[in-house]
Amino acid sequence: MNDNRKHADTRVYDLVVVGASFAGLIAARTAAHRGLKVAVLDAKTEPGSRVRTTGILVKVAVEECDIPSALTRKIPGVRLYAPNGKNIDLFAPGYYFLATDTPAIMRWLAREAARAGADLFFGARFEDATLSDDHVHIHDLDLKARYLLGADGAKSRVAQAFNLGCNSEFLIGMETEYEETPTVDPDFLHCFVDSALAPGYLGWVVPGANMTQVGLAVSDGVFGAKRKPDMTAFLKRIDPTFALWNCEVKAKRSGPIPCGGLVSPIGSHRVLLTGDAAGLVSPLTAGGIRFAFQYGRRVGAVISEYLQDGGADPAALMAGEYPTFGLKTWMRRAWSAAPPNMLINASLFTPPMRALAQWIYFQKRGGASSKSMMSIAATTQP
């Protein structure tokens, strides 16, 4: 890994990736393996710092990118809590989630990209660039690129510099990382639906990889209203069950999560967006790591084919391949209206809502179970 601040001459790369994100590092690794001269730029001081995600991987994400098992924890089910304290346990045979040591995974991905031949520049903030016929000029960093990939997050500087689509709808999330605690059942992602505490999204308690993660996210509001997560109120709600008040706090994080679907345009001549920068985050579940793995690898391959073999223009090609999230976008906007808790309590345990929850969490993956796919715990939290 290199320090961008000491260079005398302009350096020329085939591909410059802005953002050492999941998508950016996967794309860099793929392109470097295919013979491109690749650089990755990131304002962070090192790849594991300033992580803003819970880092939950769905099974299909693991199928896209093998992750070292030592950095993960397998979780087979979801326990969904209604505002009145009742809960539903959800499973799909053969399916699971992985909680992760996300900073460690980011460092591992960075090492993998570097081993493939990519140059990684941390402490390198992308501010602006200009485009000529055959190169993108990144003036402040004395770099030229035959292609520029923006993988720089929800509020992408690359998108702003080249007048590309920008995310405009967000969830606002907060998370606290605690020491690992035995009060959290390790077989479940614990998800709390409550329009008073988490309007437009939910709260969660995750038995993480050698830690416990507790978070809350709210939609940014509808009709001009602004919302903020109230972590104090959420902790008060869950503390009788999980007793986190006596646990050591290891880290805190917060930030925006794009939830408006694919941005437009996603690219122009010699410039493309991917990952959160492109809005490749499910509007309904706010999950984006799966898409980062899948499309990070894909855009690395497509850009390589374009530069090496005269392949199709990557921006035009990916505009047809990136998901548009049509139905999920409308479902997200409906949920952002925050239906009253009375309605949630009355409907969550009905067969249609159980089926919807199963689809949201498991996307109909896994076969039928000889036992009920869901069981209702009739107890109410204190």
**Segments where pLDDT lies below 50 for 5+ residues?**
3-8, 365-382
Helix/strand order = EEHEEHEEEEHEEEEHEEEEHEEEHHHHHE
User: Can you identify the CATH class?
Assistant: Alpha Beta
Q: In one word, what is the shape?
A: globular
Biggest sheet, open or closed, and with what strands and sense? 9 strands, mixed
Question: What is the overall number of helices?
Answer: 10
CATH fold-type name: FAD/NAD(P)-binding domain
CATH superfamily: FAD/NAD(P)-binding domain
Number of beta strands: 20
CATH architecture: 3-Layer(bba) Sandwich
- The overall average pLDDT, rounded, is 90
How far from one another are the termini? 51 Å
Number of domain modules: 1
Give your account of this protein's structure.
With 382 residues, the protein is of the alpha/beta class. It has one domain (2-362): FAD/NAD(P)-binding domain (3-Layer(bba) Sandwich). The chain has helices at residues 22-33, 59-64, 102-116, 157-161, 231-242, 289-309, 314-321, 326-336, 341-347, 351-362; strands at 2-3, 11-18, 38-42, 57-58, 72-75, 77-81, 87-90, 97-100, 119-122, 130-131, 136-138, 143-150, 170-178, 188-192, 203-208, 211-219, 249-258, 267-268, 271-273, 374-377. The strands form three sheets. Strands 1, 2, 3, 9, 10, 11, 12, 18 and 19 form a nine-stranded mixed sheet that branches. The protein has an eight-stranded mixed sheet with strand order 17-13-16-15-14-6-7-20, covered by helices on one side. A hairpin with a 2-residue loop joins strand 15 (203-208) and strand 16. It is globular.
